[in-house]
Amino acid sequence: MPSAIANGVDLYYEAHGQGPVILGIHGSPGSAVLWEPAAAELGTLGTCVVYDRRGYGRSGAPAPFDATDLDEQVADAAALLDRLGAESAVVIGRSTGGLIALELARTRPQRVRGLVLLEPALLTVDDDTRAWAARLRAKVLDAAGDDPAHAAEAVVRVALGDDTWERLDPGVRELLRAGGRAVLAEIRGRGLDLSAEPLALTEDDLTGIDVPALLVSASGSPAPLHRAVQWLAAGLPNAAAAIVPGGHLIDPAHSVVLEFVGRMTA
C-alpha cells in the first residue's frame, strides 16, 4: 500500500493514470475507498491521487488524536503534493474535503491550477446555515455517547438521509462508522465545518481566489448546502456552477466534472 509521511502523519494514498496531478479530498466521514471508481475515470485525464485524510481509513493520526484544525488538514494536502513532487494540481473536494480544497486555494494559490467543489461544507454563509450547522454539531455530539462510530453515522444520516444510510452496503457503513474518532477530532478543532469556530470568509476573501473553479450541488441535498454553493459561485471571480441529480454524495467523476478537469489538464 503506498503511503507518505506528510506533515508528520503517515497518509495512505493511491495514484491512478499519468500526467498532470488531480488531487481528490474526501469528506467527513470518508475514505479514498469511496473514490476508487471515480479516481479510475479521472486517471484518464491525468494522475488522479486520492488519499485517506488523517485519522480516516488506512492513514495514521497523532497520539492522542483529540483535535484537528482546518489549517492542519490543508497542510496535509500541501505536504502530500510536495512528497509526490507536484508543484500544483487540479483539486477536487467533496463536502468537508471541499472546504479543505477551498482553503488550500485561498492560502496557497500557487498549488491549485483548478478547483472543483462538490457541495463544500462552508456552513457560515448566512444565519440559517450557521444555525443548521450548530444543530448538526449538537446532534452528532449527543449521538456519539461512548462510541465515536455513532458520531460518524449521525453526520451521514443528516447529509444523505436515513433511507440512503440504510441502503448503503454494510461494508461501506462500517467504513464510514470507523471514521467517528476523526469526526470528533474535527469537531473539537478549529476551522472545520462542525467545529465551534468554523471558517468564515468574506466577499473580499473570495475575490482573491481567482483560479478556475467549478461548484456542483445536488438537487436532493439539504438547502444549507445549496446556499453555500450559491454564495461561493456568486463571489468567486472565475467560477461556474452546476446542479446534478441525486444527493450529497456527488460523483467526483460526474460528466460535468470530467469536462472541467479535462480542460484544466489539457
From TrEMBL:
GO terms for molecular function: aminopeptidase activity; triacylglycerol lipase activity. Keywords: Hydrolase. Transmembrane segments: none annotated. SUPFAM superfamilies: alpha/beta-Hydrolases. Pfam families: Abhydrolase_1. GO terms for biological process: glycerolipid catabolic process; proteolysis. Residues 20-156 form the AB hydrolase-1 domain. Belongs to the peptidase S33 family. This is Pimeloyl-ACP methyl ester carboxylesterase. It comes from Jiangella alba. The lineage of its organism: Bacteria, Bacillati, Actinomycetota, Actinomycetes, Jiangellales.
